[in-house]
Design a protein that fits this description.
Blueprint: H1 2-13, H2 15-48, H3 50-72, H4 75-86, H5 90-121, H6 123-127, H7 129-136, H8 138-144, H9 147-152, H10 157-177, H11 186-209, H12 219-228, H13 230-237, H14 244-289, H15 294-323, H16 331-357, H17 362-414
Length: 415
Amino acid sequence: MGKLAQRISTIAKNKEAKTVAGNFMWLSLLQVAGYAFPLITMPYLAKVIGVEGFGKIAFAAAIMIWIQTITDWGFNLIATRDVARNRDNHQKVSEIFSNVLWARCLLMVVSFIILLLLIAVIPKFREDWAVILVTFLMIPGHILFPEWFFQAIERMKYITILNVLMKLIFTIAVFIFIKRPEDYILQPLFTSLGFTTSGLIALYYIIGKWGIKLYKPQWRAIMQTIKGSTDVFINNLMPNLYNSFSTMLLGLWGGGSAVGILDGGNRFVNFGNQLQTSINRAFYPFLSRKIEKHKTYIIINIGTSILMCLFLFFTAPLLVKYLLSAEFVDSIPVIRIRAISMIFYAIASAYGANYLIIKHKEALLRKITMCCSLAGFAIAWPLVYYFSYIGASLTVTISLALLACGSYIAARRIQ
C-alpha cells in the first residue's frame, strides 16, 4: 500500500499527468453532455413522439454521420497530431487551423449538393426531406466548433463549459416546444442550433482571444490538407459501411418503428462509447509525444469498457423501463448485443487510432479497416433482412470484433 500511495503521489505531482487528467475530465464532460442531455429528454420524447418519431430522427442522423465523416476527413486525428507537435509555433498552428477550416467548408458544400441529388432520386429520402435538411444544419455548426483544435492544444475547460451551457438551454427548449408527435422535427433543429451557437463563440476564443490567424483560402494548400488526411478519412468512413449503413438499411426495409427500437437501445451504448472516446482523445496528444506510456493507457481504456459492458448488459431492462416506455421493450436485446461491442471498440481504438496512426501507419490501419468494414457491409444485408434490428446490432458487434483483432495483431507486429 505504501508503494502504491507513493506512485499515486508521484503521478499527481507530474505536470503532464495533470494535463492528461484535466483534458480527460473536460473531454468527458463534453462527450457525456452530448448524450446525457438527450437521455434526459428521452423519456419525454418517447411518450410524445413515439417510436415512429424516434425512427425518423435516427434515419436522418444516420445519413448525417456519412456527411460528418466526409467533412471531418480525418482532420480530427491528423490535424490534432500536427498541432500538438507544433503548438509552440504560432504561425504553423494558424496555417493548420486555416487550411482545415476551409477544407471542411469545401467538403460540406460538395456533400450538400450530393444530399440534394439523393433527396431527388431516392423515395425514402424524398419522403423525409424536411427532417433530413433540418438535421443537416448541425454540419456547419460542427465545423464551426473545432473540437479537435481544443483537444490538440489541451485547453478544453472554457469551451466545454460553453458547450454544456448551450446544450442545457436547447434541452429545456425540447420540453417547452415539443408537445405533439409532429413536433419531432424540432429536436434535430434544437441540436443544430446548439452546435452553431457554440461554434461561433468558439471561433471568437480561437481568433479573438488566443490570436490564431485565419488566413485566406488557398486552393493548393486546401487540396494538400485533404490529401494528407485521406488515409485517415478512409479509415473513418469505412465503419459507416456497417454502422450507419445498417441503420439506413433497416429504415428502408423495416420502417420507422424498427429504426426507433434500434435507436432506443443504441443511445445507452453510445453514451458509454462517448466516455471511451473521451479517454482516447485525452490520451491522444500525450501519446503523440510519449508513446512509451501506451500500456498504461491500454489498462485504463479496456478496463473501463469491460465495466461499462457489464453494467449495461445487466441493467438493460431497468434502463428501458424507466428511461423509455413500454413501446421500447424490444430495445433490451439491442442494448445487450451492443454492450459487448464496447469492449471491441476499446481494443480497436487503443491499437488503431491511438497507436498505428501515432506511429504513422495510417495506410496499414486503412487497409485493416477497409477489409473489416467490407465484411460488415456484406453481412449487413442478410442480417438486417432476416433479423431486423437484432441483425443491425449483430452487424456492428461482429464488425468491431474483426476490427479489434486486426488492429491488435498489426500493432503487436510493429511493437
